[in-house]
Amino acid sequence: MTLAAPSGILVIKLGALGDFVQALGPFAAIRNHHKGQRITLLTTGPFEEFARASGYFDDTWTGGRPATADVGGWLKLRRRLRAGEFERVYDLQTSDRSSFCYRLFWPGPRPEWSGIAVGCSHPHANPKRDFMHTVERQTEQLAMAGISNVPAPDLSWVAADISRFGLPKTYALLAPGGAIHRPGKQWPPERFGDLAQRLAGQGIAPVLLGSKAEAPIMAAVAKRCSDARDLSGQTSLLELAALSKGARLAVGNDTGPMHLTAQMGCPSVVLYSGVSDPALCGQRGRAVTIIRREKLSDLTKDDVLGELGL
Fold first, then answer.
1. Which of 34, 207, 224, 259 has a CA 20 to 30 Å removed from the CA of 268?
2. What residues in the chain have per-residue pLDDT under 70?
3. Residues 200 and 291 occupy one common structural domain
């Protein structure tokens, strides 16, 4: 009996939120290029529901990020990958961890591979790739793999019922958090509190977004503005997108939720310090303003209000 040739397509995108949002255009491009083929996404738990709702994938696998010492997790992932009958893999994570998945196919056969894994069939062979914005870098990577048309992200498919939050018609989204290990990327929460107070005074309800781990930051904002509504840790990605669609405006640090507000078309002001470069990872959208100061503590509430026209 002759076995059927592998025909499936695997896409690897593990996170984080901003990177995932910026991969939506490449996801669509891969889907369009491989019409009629089964496409599987290897990702992590936080993105499963969002990825399934997008319609770009036939299957969504989680468990794509075993801990370094989790031998059992890596062996499980290896068995799954080798049984997947993948003709081609698009590694859009392009990290050491995702590149290691290429080695999990040893001793072979290995699928065609677009990424940066040593020895892969379709390498992103640009030595300056790390100095490109994420969007242009992934577009060029796919072009080198034969996909020349990468559209802008289209989130028209997003749908979620946000009535349970009971928000007023006019509200603003504030994302005062960020990576705990990179405090230099954060505007002082007290300034967010002052901004929230000004918004509330103009009839724009301030709504705080973030993760549960950012609770102390949210508390510091709420201490300055008791009218601020804290939804941190309470929203799914689909709900966050729906909230962005209905918001009057959004202001936040360089953090994941701001990529989603920007792509949903919400007028978004994103705050950058000198420790990160918007030329490499800046939010994209039709109404995005980026304010950058070497130290965000030098940025005043009036500076932000001026950009908002308030």
1. 224
2. 1-5
3. yes
